[in-house]
């Protein structure tokens, strides 16, 4: 078989394709964890904003009733919180864990869903955030151990 020197071949060799794919795979291996962590951070920020909305609603509720609401439904019924707020971040379940005339604690708990569509609280990311009557957000969400980074990533609201 002879090759026409006037018309060089117009294709890549199999070796060139394999080398290129290997380089891309290595780059993606290092990039994927940071993309996942960035997405998780955005969901944590959204959960933090929702907790701040709940805290503001609790302040208005306290001004009217001289006690804090014990459930989110009370805040929804008084039209201080929109029901859609609870669905704004499907990765977090919101609740009021403690409330009386002196203070309250609201929680955003990280969840995933199993194959049947039921919430599971021990998935790849787990943990919770809390806010109290002072407006301080505490807590964090931790991911599974990442062998590429050599650590378990930890997320907290960034504002």
Automatic annotation (TrEMBL):
Cellular component GO terms, alphabetical: type II protein secretion system complex
Organism superkingdom: Bacteria
Keyword field: Membrane, Methylation, Transmembrane, Transmembrane helix
Gene Ontology terms describing biological process: protein secretion by the type II secretion system
Gene3D superfamilies: Glycoprotein, Type 4 Pilin
Stretches that traverse the bilayer: 12-32
Listed NCBIfam families: IV_pilin_GFxxxE
Protein name: Type II secretion system protein G
Organism encoding this protein: Stieleria neptunia
């Amino acid at each position: 078989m002879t090759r026409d020197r006037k018309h060089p071949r117009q294709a890549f060799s199999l070796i060139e394709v394999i080398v290129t794919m290997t380089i891309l795979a290595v780059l993606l291996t290092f990039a994927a964890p940071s993309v996942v962590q960035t997405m998780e951070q955005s969901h944590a920020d959204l959960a933090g904003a929702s907790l701040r909305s709940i805290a503001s609603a609790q302040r208005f509720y306290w001004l009217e009733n001289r006690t804090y609401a014990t459930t989110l439904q009370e805040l929804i019924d008084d039209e201080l919180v929109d029901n859609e707020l609870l669905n704004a971040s499907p990765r977090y379940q919101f609740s009021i864990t403690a409330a009386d005339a002196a203070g309250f604690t609201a929680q955003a708990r990280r969840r995933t869903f199993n194959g049947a569509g039921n919430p599971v609280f021990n998935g790849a990311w787990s943990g919770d955030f809390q806010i109290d009557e002072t407006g301080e957000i505490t807590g964090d969400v931790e991911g599974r151990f990442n062998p590429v980074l050599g650590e378990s990533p930890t997320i907290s609201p960034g504002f």
